[in-house]
Every structure is written in C-alpha cells, then in structure tokens.
Please model this.
Amino acid sequence: MIENIKQVHEEVKVRISEVTNLEQLEEFRLEFLVKKGKIQEFFGQLKELPNEQKREVGKELNILSKFTENEYNQLKQNLEEKAYTVSDLDLTLPGIKYNLGSEHPVRQTINQMIEIFKKMGFSVAEGPEAEDEYHNFDALNFPPNHPARDMQDTFFLENKFDKVVLRTHTSPVQIRLMENVKPPIRAIMPGRVYRNETLDSTHLAEFHQIEGLYIDKNVTMAELKATMMHFARVMYGDDIEFRFRASFFPFTEPSAELDIRTKHSNKWMEIVGCGMVHPNVLRAGGIDPEEYTGYAFGFGVERITMAKTQLDDIRKLYENDIRVLSQF
Ligand code: DAH
Model:
C-alpha cells in the first residue's frame, strides 16, 4: 500500500503541474480531494490494515493528503488572482466618482449668522432641548394659563419630578445665561426647538432659532434697532428697506417685529421678533432691573434660509433630496 500511496503522490505532482486554469483545477479536485477521490479511498483501506502497519502507512498517507491540499489551495489562489488581473481589470476604465457631501443650508445660515454677530461682540451659548416649564414659560413671564402652554402647541415629556417640555423656543437659554453669568451679557444662542404644529409649506414641528441677549447698564431700543439693521444689511445687502412693527411677547416690553424688503422682491418679509427685556424676566434671572436694561431678539433660521435660497416650501429643507441640497 505504501508503494501505491507513493505512486499517487508522484501522480499528484505531475497532474498539478499540468493545471493551467480553474476548470482543470476543479477536475483535479474531483479526482483527488473529494470523499470518493483517490486519497479518501486510501483512508478507507487504512482501516482494514493490521495494526502494526497502520502507523507507517498512515504517516505516508497524511503526507500525501497535506501535500495535495496545500498544492491545491496555493494554485487556486494564484489562478484566481491571475484570472482577475488578466481579464477583469481594465486600467483604461474611468474611476468610480463619489459625491462630496456639503454643509446643510440650515447649518450654513447658522454659521453665517454666528459670524456676523461675533463681529459685533456677541459670544455663543447653548442650553438644553428638554427644558423645564419654569425656564421655558414661567421665568419668561408667561401667565399661568397662556395658550402656548397648551398640549396643542407644546410637546410635554413624561417626568416624575417636574413638568418637562421640548423647548418651544430658544428664549429659555436667556434665563440660563442670566443665572450663570453676571452682566454685561452679550450672546447669541442657536438651537433646535419643537412645536406641536401641523406641517405645511411654512411650518415644521422641529426647527431652529437663534436667540440674542444683550444686558448692560443703559442699553436702549436704539441699539437694538441698529444691531438688527446692521445684521440684515450684512445678510441681505445694503439696499434693503426696513419696517419695524409694534408687537407683543410676554418677555419683552416694548416688543417689535422687523420686516425687510429687498430690491428684487416686492414682498415684505418678517425676519425677527425682538424687544427690551421685561423687568420680570431680568428679576427671574437674578438681575436688578433698576440697575440694568437689555434687549433680546429671536430669529427663525429656516425662514431666513428660505429667503436666501428662494425655496418655496420649508419641508424641502428636510427631505434630504441631494438634488435640492447640493444647490446651496
Ligand atoms: N421666542 C419667540 C418665539 O419663539 C421669538 C422671540 C421674540 C425671541 C422676541 C425674543 C424676542 O428674544 O425678544 O416666537
């Protein structure tokens, strides 16, 4: 039997050296390496041998088996690599082109606004999106039964200890800032806000605002107006028209809204709500209204982005259609 094994070993050497492609290699495998192949056949015979021969024959058989498998695997790898290199790799084909990502238009607006206000001496602050009712409403001088507190406008979060809401505006960050920083305070506060809105072309349930707060001695409404006008000119160009309208917010007195109109459009567009910080709000923030005054403002970032991009539907900003977003 040893002789037979050695003979097959020689046969394997010759046969493997003749293999030049994967089909021939498969024939080789079927002849030598499968269950009914020549090598397994020997293993079957090995069982029949008298014990004193098993050791020696078994050793020879293992050598053959290992050798054949190694040769097979080695050649298989070589042939597969070669098959790929020779026939499938065409170096003249154009490469695969990947699209580069770009900054989302809303993020671009936020960054642009931060730059404009930084140059006017504003720093940037942030606050939590899950906010307690105190900071979102009470401290901002909302009366106890103000409609904005209603479930219809506000998302309430379940919480055992006190009532927590998804903040409906960035104004609560004003309070958190006053609680933590002594005046003078001059900061903007960008962030995400939430309202229980029916979605349409001008309303989302989740959007962004940029809040502003300036508190110091003798801050006046004139400074507020000048700051808003400077911002709008940098953002939309020097030749815009302004319209300040009296308005109402619980946390400012007096309150105003600013509309602008560009040369090319005949429509007035509201860009910001603002006003002089209400004395109750200063007190809630631990600041003496006899000593300090201040102004505050709040921008809707999506609205400003829509004006810039001339998108007609706010929802298009969040459909993540690359054909829309890549234009900006
Ligand atoms: N918080 C207001 C809103 O969500 C926006 C606003 C108006 C903020 C006037 C202000 C402000 O700071 O002074 O509609």
Notes: The pocket of 3,4-dihydroxyphenylalanine is lined by residues 169, 171, 211, 249, 252, 273-275, 296-298 (CB under 6 Å).
